[in-house]
Amino acid sequence: xxxxxxxxxxxxxxxxxxxxxxxxxxxxxxxxxxxxxxxxxxxxxxxxxxxxxxxxxxxxxxxxxxxxxxxxxxxxxxxxxxxxxxxxxxxxxxxxxxxxxxxxxxxxxxxxxxxxxxxxxxxxxxxxxxxxxxxxxxxxxxxxxxxxxxxxxxxxxxxxxxxxxxxxxxxxxxxxxxxxxxxxxxxxxxxxxxxxxxxxxxxxxxxxxxxxxxxxxxxxxxxxxxxxxxxxxxxxxxxxxxxxxxxxxxxxxxxxxxxxxxxxxxxxxxxxxxxxxxxxxxxxxxxxxxxxxxxxxxxxxxxxxxxxxxxxxxxxxxxxxxxxxxxxxxxxxxxxxxxx
Length: 340
Known about the structure:
The chain is of the alpha/beta class. Helices cover about 30% and strands about 25% of the residues. The protein is built from 9 helices and 13 strands. It has a 5-stranded mixed beta sheet with strand order 1-7-6-4-5, with helices on both faces. Strand 4 (about 90-95), helix 4 and strand 5 (about 120-125) form a beta-alpha-beta unit.
């Protein structure tokens, strides 16, 4: 009688820490100033700056698309990280303005950067897209399913703005930011990310047309359903509450307090929102990174561009604790605590 064979002992591999090892960003050359907007709608520089903090924004050139910006930001992050295209196992693009419904923008980026082996997909979480992508990347790397992940936030909002609506057209711009994530021995990296959503408030910031529910046709094209619609007061209230709550939860889970933070990088949507968040968290303006005045709200790209600029200008040093916090249509929100 044959004896039963012993069961194979499964190899146990502990979860790995995940760090951002390189960042990059790209914004178009074309600058649209507040003075130029005065010629398009009933507004002026003083009104825009006092209510939003925005002085100018970047606009894509003709023939320049979300994938083009994303690929340029990706190359900058790859160079900073010292990573080649073929080392990348996964490409995640957070965007609400993909080049097309399919293929996804990540596949287009894959081709542009010369990668042939990565898993590629987009995610739609509006302005929260980059941090949602960061957490997904963290999970894949920590579980050893991937070694190197490229996360991009990219949006071409100039293509979905109603340039006759003075309440929204002054807010938005185009751009892309990227990060390379990988396990780095001896570093904790991404400590904790808190994410959330509440679809009950979806209609206070949305684009109703262009999907299967309301296709754009020659009969309704003049109604501009495929442009951003926003209730500013409602967005302000929900954004501040959600971001402060997410930031506090992320810090508490990480075992940190705001006094431990070297830098806070919030979503770059509105200066009043940024100031309210800093005040409620008890963080002085000297520790809050802001570039809103130069780029406006670039949706998923905003916090990614700010992270890259903060990195390249020395706002955080190795082992510093930083906090990223975002809010977007959906409604969605997220906050990440990272040891740099």
